[in-house]
Design goal:
By secondary structure, the protein is mostly loops. The protein has a domain of 32 residues. 0% of the residues lie in helices and 0% in strands. The chain has no helices and no strands. 0% of the residues are buried. It comes from Bacillus licheniformis (strain ATCC 14580 / DSM 13 / JCM 2505 / CCUG 7422 / NBRC 12200 / NCIMB 9375 / NCTC 10341 / NRRL NRS-1264 / Gibson 46).
Length: 73
Amino acid sequence: MPAIVGPIFIRRVVDDSAAFFGDVFAISPKCTDSSGGGAGTFQTGDYGLIHNDINKTTFTDADVMDGSQSLNL
């Protein structure tokens, strides 16, 4: 189905990212990854101001495999 997409601002697309506009039939990632970040790590925007006086991040990944990519072509 066609779509009218408004203004778009993409700062960076790296090797493992995906950017889609309009309809997407299937998304099949070619890699799996886990990310852990502290308070304010994944904030987006042009002018972010984040105050984190006291914080602690503990990232524990107990499983052996996060996801399967064997059937993704």
